[in-house]
Amino acid sequence: DQQVKQNSPSLSVQEGRISILNCDYTNSMFDYFLWYKKYPAEGPTFLISISSIKDKNEDGRFTVFLNKSAKHLSLHIVPSQPGDSAVYFCAASSLQGAQKLVFGQGTRLTINP
Amino acid sequence: DVKVTQSSRYLVKRTGEKVFLECVQDMDHENMFWYRQDPGLGLRLIYFSYDVKMKEKGDIPEGYSVSREKKERFSLILESASTNQTSMYLCASSLPSGTGPSGKLFFGSGTQLSVL
């Protein structure tokens, strides 16, 4: 069973606009959530994270929102830039699972000039 | 910067061959992981290790084994490669719990394995 789901395989956004990537999870034991970004021929790199005690975390153009009651998180990128074109994975972990991450399927974001 | 190095970028093997994928990290991290990435399935955990000579099964360990004789090196072994093991294999490392954000992994560039 897929405990972390990204239901949109792809997303296309115009440069300068907001990109919103969504992620849903089913395991209520998850208490830490992360977003990773992956370019072709490279490994994923950490982007931003949020603890379950918060509902928002911001880092420059990137903001992650967590809605625990809906078991939903989202990544907002504003303004979107061509260099943001990549595959984005959300991931979750629990204290019980230590640092074992469970990943979603990924969303390919394309920023159009 | 943390560097996680995977020995091969591309690998082509025959069905039934024994395959070794090597991973080395240079930041003295306790934790190391092997994931495979497949389209539509995301990253799935094969095995992980919290310390030298320790290993634990991830979500899809069947057909794989691992070895961690030294802290910096974590090897993934396909005992008898099969076509369904054709995939992108990603190694990662991290600090232990309590020393930083839980789950922040540092990944290598990946090994694209094709089993014919």
Summary keywords:
heterodimer, A: 113 residues, mainly beta, six-stranded mixed sheet, five-stranded antiparallel sheet, B: 116 residues, seven-stranded mixed sheet, three-stranded antiparallel sheet, 0% helix, 51% strand
In words, what does this structure look like?
The complex is a heterodimer of chains A (113) and B (116). Chain A is mainly β and 113 residues long. Chain A has no helices and eleven strands. Chain A has strands spanning 4-5, 10-14, 19-25, 32-38, 45-51, 56-59, 62-67, 72-77, 86-93, 102-103, 107-112. In chain A, strands 2, 4, 5, 9, 10 and 11 form a six-stranded mixed sheet that branches. In chain A, strands 1-3-8-7-6 form a five-stranded antiparallel sheet, with no helix packed on it. In chain A, a hairpin with an 8-residue loop joins strand 9 and strand 10 (102-103). The radius of gyration of chain A is 13 Å and the shape is globular. The mean pLDDT of chain A is 93. By secondary structure, chain B is mainly beta. The model of chain B has no long low-confidence stretch (mean pLDDT 91). Classes of the chains: A mainly beta (113), B mainly beta (116). At the A-B interface, strand 4, strand 5, strand 9 and strand 10 of A face strand 5, strand 6, strand 10 and strand 11 of B.
Write the layout of secondary structure elements.
The complex is a heterodimer of chains A (113) and B (116).
Chain A: E1 4-5, E2 10-14, E3 19-25, E4 32-38, E5 45-51, E6 56-59, E7 62-67, E8 72-77, E9 86-93, E10 102-103, E11 107-112
Parallel strand pairs in A: 2-11
Antiparallel strand pairs in A: 1-3, 3-8, 4-5, 4-9, 6-7, 7-8, 9-10, 9-11
Chain B: E1 4-6, E2 10-13, E3 19-21, E4 23-25, E5 31-38, E6 42-49, E7 56-57, E8 64-70, E9 73-78, E10 87-94, E11 106-107, E12 111-115
Parallel strand pairs in B: 2-12
Antiparallel strand pairs in B: 1-4, 3-9, 5-6, 5-10, 6-7, 8-9, 10-11, 10-12
